[in-house]
Structures are given as C-alpha cells and as structure tokens.
Amino acid sequence: MTSSKIFSNTSIIRASYANDSDVTLAQFRIETNDIDVSKVAPGDIILRNLYLSLDPYVRFTLNETGGDTPASWRLLNVPFYGLGISEIIASGEAVATKYPVGALVSGNVGYEQYTRISGLDDPKTQTDLRILPAHARDETKGVPLSYYISALGMPGLTAYAGLKVLDVKPGKIIFVGSAAGGVGQLVGQLAKQQGLRVIGSAGSDEKAAYLIEKQQFDGAFNYKTEDAREALTRLAPNGIDYFYDTVGGAILDLVLEIINEHGKILSIGMISQENGKEPYPIRNLNAIARKAVTIYGFIYWHHLQYFQNGELDTTIRSLLEQGKINYREEVFNGIETAPQHFINMLSGKYAGKVIIKIADL
Amino acid sequence: MTSSKIFSNTSIIRASYANDSDVTLAQFRIETNDIDVSKVAPGDIILRNLYLSLDPYVRFTLNETGGDTPASWRLLNVPFYGLGISEIIASGEAVATKYPVGALVSGNVGYEQYTRISGLDDPKTQTDLRILPAHARDETKGVPLSYYISALGMPGLTAYAGLKVLDVKPGKIIFVGSAAGGVGQLVGQLAKQQGLRVIGSAGSDEKAAYLIEKQQFDGAFNYKTEDAREALTRLAPNGIDYFYDTVGGAILDLVLEIINEHGKILSIGMISQENGKEPYPIRNLNAIARKAVTIYGFIYWHHLQYFQNGELDTTIRSLLEQGKINYREEVFNGIETAPQHFINMLSGKYAGKVIIKIADL
Are residues A292 and B299, on separate chains, in Cβ contact within 8 Å? Predict the structure, then answer.
C-alpha cells in the first residue's frame, strides 16, 4: 500500500480550433485537476514542469485539418503540448534507472504543472525526453536553466546544425530571416563567430537596433517599414551568399533573384506558407540552376546527434559563459498566463524567445 | 614568304532573332567564304571541324535580350557557336606546343567547316578547348569519335557529375526528366549501374519503349499522352528519392509534392522557364523544409575536373566498351543541314543526341 500524494495541477486545454482566424482566448481553457504523484506504473514517470517554451509551430495544432500536423497533436479537450524543462518527481520501477527521480529533463510536455508520461518501458514508445547535464542547474555563470529550451535547446540546435548544413565560410555574407527570433539571433551570432558578415530582418525598429547594438549583426532592417529589396541592396550591395530562411514566400523569391552564384539557402519551415493559405507562387526557381544555388530543407529532429554527443552544450554554453554571444528571451511567470502570451507571441509583440516559468527549481 | 593555302568554309550565320516565336529557317543564313589556313598569328589555331553538337541551350541565343545569355553570344551576322570535335590543322608558334597540329580537340567552335581561334597566347583568353586522348581516334571498340561531344562530352559530364552531386545510393529510386535526351539516357543507365531503380519520362511512345527495352530503365512514360501524376504513382508507388530535373515548372512542382523525405533534386536548367515566358509559379516549396528535401543547382562548367583528371573518359568509355551502357545519337551529314535539324531537334523530332557530321577524320 502506497500513501497517496496529491497535487493540484493546472493545465491549458485546447478548447476549440482557430483555423483561418486569429487565435483568441476562446481557443484555451484553464483547468485544474488533482494528480496523485504516488501512483506511478512501472513504465511511467511524472514530471514537475519548470519552464515551457511558447513556439509558433504550435499554431498548427489549432487547425482542425491540414498541414502535416498529426491528428493526435490536434485533439480538443486535452492539454497543449510544447517543449519544456522539468524535474522527474516520480519514476516507475522499470524506468527508474534511465529516468531517476531528481534528474532534470527537456522534451515535449503538457502546458501544465505536472505531466505524466507513460509506457517508457515499451521500446515502441517514442519520446524526445533527454536528461540534462548536471551543470544545467548551475546558473552562476550567466546561463539560466531556461536556456535548455532556447539557446541550448531546440532553437539552439536549429541554429547550430543549420549553419553546419550550410557549411558557411568566413568572409561570406549571410542574411538571416526573423533574425530577432529564438533561432535567428543565434544564427547571426554564431555566424559572426565564424567570421561571416551578418545581416538580418526583424519586425520592429527596436528589434533591428538590438541586433546591431547587442548581438553583433553588421546590419538589420525592419521588414514592416522598409522594402526588403531596398534594404538588401543597401546592406548587401555585393549580394548574399547564404540565406537562413524561416519564412519562405516572397522573401525567398526575392533572395533567389539576388543571391550570388553558388549561394546556399537553408529552409527551416515556411510559416508564411502554412495555415491553409494559398501558397505564395515562387517564380525565380530558375535561378537555382543558373547560379548553381543549393536549397536545403531542414528538420531539427534529424540533427539530434548534437544533443546526444554534447557538442551543442559544450560549444554554445562556452560561448555564452565567455560573453561572446548572448541570448534574448522573455520569461513570464505562471502557467495560467500562457494563453495570452501565446497570442501576443503570434502577433510579434515580443522580442526573443518566449518562455513561461511554471515553477522554481 | 609563306605559300597561301585557301579552303572554302561554309558557315551557319545567325541572321535574325526568333524571340518568343518558333524558330524558322529565317533565323539562319548559309554563307561560304574562303579561309587561308596558312595565315596563322603566333597565338592562333585553326580547326577543321569534324562533328558539331546541336543543343537546346543555343535557342537562347535567338532571343535579342533576356536570360543570362551574354550579348556576345547573340550577335547577328556571325556564325552560331556550339560544341564540336575538331582537328588542329594550323597552330601559331606561341601555342603550337599546347595545341599541336594533328591533335583532336573538343570545345566551342563555329557552326562551320573551319574555325580560327585567336589570342590563345594571352592568359586572359578563356577557352574551353580540351585536347582529346589519343584513343579517341580508335573507333574499333564501339566508341565512335562523335561520343566526345555526347556520352564523353558535355552531356556525359552533366550526367556523371550530376549523379555525384546527388550522391545517389543503391536501392533508391530516381526519376529522370527528358530521359531520352542526350543527358537523361546516360543518367538513367549510370544510375542503374549504381544499383538504383530508374524511371524516366520521354516525349513519345517510341522513346519511352527504347528506354525500357534498350537502356535498362525500370519504367518510362510518354509525358505527352499520360498524366505525370498518374504515371509516377503507377511507376513509383512508394515515392521518388531523387529527381534529375532538366525542365522545371509543373513537373518540378509535382515532384516536390510526391518526393520522399530526404529526397534530392538536381536542377540542370529550366528550359520550360526560359525564352521570356512568364515563369511557372511553384507552389509546393514548403515541401523542402517539411521533408528535408535538398535542391541542387548544377552548372556543368563547375565540374570540368572530371574531364581534366580523365575520370569521365575512363569510367564511361569502359562501360561503353563493355556494352554495360549504350548511347543513342542521331548523326546527320553536312554543315548545311544544321538549320533544319536544329529546328527539328527543338520540336522533339529526334531521339537521343543530335549531331552534325561535318567532315571525316
């Protein structure tokens, strides 16, 4: 007989679809239920969630159909899922060695205070949970724990591995789309560390100025107020060698026109082309053969080796600790604030990576 | 005092532009002039042209403006230029060691019987002339000399180096566009030699049948009579891993839709997108990021090392001599027949590489 240990668990539930409309609070319902953390099956673990990342791709789960988002990610009346940092507070007997109580992990969790993950003793169960290194707890060297879902998490991996795929060379020029975002700010700074000239686009004057003043960008422009063709002509009069593309659509078409011979483009997803809208018709693809351009599609979970071998942690944590790069995130307190911050994030209100702090370590 | 040695030289002159219209005989003028092959400046050579390749890209020189074709390639009242095989019959004293009389060369020459190439003693003069290996004369092993502008020339290089760029793997499936053309037939057979499953599209039932019956293709379809989506679904029900694309436009858009994850596309030029027509609007580019697809633009003169190091000659000549692959070309006699054959080639009347034989070796 185990004694029960019951916690109150507040969750953000997917209440309805937004589909083609703007996301509103009607899509979210805040629910509080009890969770008995003493009841843990042999293959289960229970996580106490500390930080939660709010990411644009979660918008796709508010479409009833469409895209490649699996139906299981779009169920109504269950919590949203997102990348989090959590502490293991209970672990079933079959998995306790691999997932020891007290360890910190990162991976997909619910938008909630506690998440139960089941079936980890079944080899068929897929999970992206990774145990964080012991030094993740050490915030004394200027690297907060929250960075394990930002600079040292998925955005960091996407930036780091994306530059590897582009195989960037010193002295060349890279244009970074959404440069003030969770991925773009790192792409630019890492490219700068590698000796490139770096220019970026951002959604406000403040964001563009921050990139130049605080994050070593050689140039940046506000794509909402300056024509992209004029800005790129001004900032890169000799053309662009690499384009780190987060958006697709019209900006990709423009870059194809002005990119240099042997230019390379990394496409990490075409936000502008999703949400059931009619895709932007790209007309400059003939530039690919004419200029021997390469376009690489990038899927971050194909590059998890940089988590597994510790390379991402070693490389980026070291640069952060030395102050050679920095990272901008906006951290808000309380799981119940997630819906409004998610809406604000989608509308571009925030600068840098948006994170909800759910609990203290 | 040198004795003069005067030959009659018939040339095909660019008489007028076709621009957006179909090419007609009005674009060509046949001229015969004398050439004194005893008069050769120190840096000049004179070529006796033996074979001439008729290639679709020459169509671009019949546009008064547009594209990336240099203006110097589009001059009126001068001979057309194209890839040829020639014998050096005179060589100036400054270049006679590098270009000895009697050697066979391949490179761009005029559509004519004799071509003078000047300034080869000036390091700034660019030339694509290459001296052919001595065994090029040996036609006893089933490799005619004309192959040095087809299977062992630019089309051969484009096929061979293109497959290198795609880094094709055994067991995968490749779809070859324009598979009956000078490049496509080799792409398919070389891929087959490397253990791939090979399917192709061609412009007639006869061409499609030839690919299957004579050139080891696993499947082929007539794109003029069968819907490409239906054909690819029939021939590649599990999707496509590689697409060797010579056309761009609608077929590229379709392949982006059905290509497998990690698929790779080589684009060697988008014939369908040139000639001043409004480009076909590609709508499926979001597939690149979604499926981690890579698109490589290919420019053949970036890969000349396979000529220079002899690798192309060794590899493909050996396969041809052993009968492991074969090559289909249509050879017509007489420089004066070039205009009509050029027109016929553009309209797809011929199967395989189209070559004009100008003179016997």
Answer: yes
Contact predicate B69/B63, CB 8 Å = yes
Q: Which residues of A touch B166 (CB under 8 A)?
A: none
Cβ within 8 Å, pair B297-A287: yes
Residue A88 has pLDDT above 50, yes or no: yes
- Within a domain: A310: no
pLDDT of residue B271: 54
Q: Are residues A145 and A34 in the same domain?
A: yes
Any B CB within 8 A of A250 CB: no
Residues A114 and A208 in one domain: no
| Closest CA–CA distance from residue A281 to any residue of chain B (Å) | 5
Q: What's the average model confidence in pLDDT over A203-207?
A: 95
Report the C-alpha gap between A263 and B278 in whole angstroms. Answer: 24
Write out pLDDT tens, residues B123-138: 998 888 999 999 999 9
Q: Which residues lie below 8 Å from residue A25, measured CB to CB, with a gap of 6+?
A: A339, A340, A343
Which residue of B178, B261, B285, B301 is the best one to mutate when testing the A interface, meaning the one whose CB has the most A CBs within 10 A?
A: B285
Q: What is the CATH number of the domain that holds A115?
A: 3.90.180.10
pLDDT digit string (tens) for B1-37?
456 799 999 999 999 999 989 999 999 999 999 999 9
Any B CB within 8 A of A287 CB: yes
Report yes or no on A308 lying in a domain.
no
Helix (H, G, I), strand (E, B) or coil at B8: strand
CB contacts, 8 Å: B285 with chain A: 248, 252, 267, 270, 273, 279, 282, 285
Percent of chain B with pLDDT over 90: 83
Pairwise CA distance, residues B274 & B296, whole Å: 19
When the pLDDT of each residue in chain B is averaged and rounded to a whole number, the result is 93
> What is the per-residue pLDDT for B106?
97
Distance CA B33, CA A202 (A): 64
Say if the Cβ atoms of B286 and A268 lie within 8 Å: no
| B42-58: pLDDT as tens digits | 999 999 999 999 998 89
Report if residue B316 sits inside a domain: no
> Do both A296 and A173 map to the same domain?
yes
pLDDT, tens digit (0-9, with 9 covering 90-100), for B238-268: 999 999 998 888 999 999 999 999 999 999 9
User: A42 lies in which domain range?
Assistant: 6-150+328-357
Q: Specify whether B240 is located in the same domain as B225.
A: yes
ipTM of the complex: 0.82
B103 domain-assigned: yes
- Residue A75 shares a structural domain with residue A127: yes
Q: What is the pLDDT of residue B1?
A: 45
User: DSSP of A163-200, one letter per residue?
Assistant: HHHHT--TT-EEEETTTTSTTHHHHHHHHHHTT-EEEE
CA–CA dist B30, B306 (Å, integer): 36
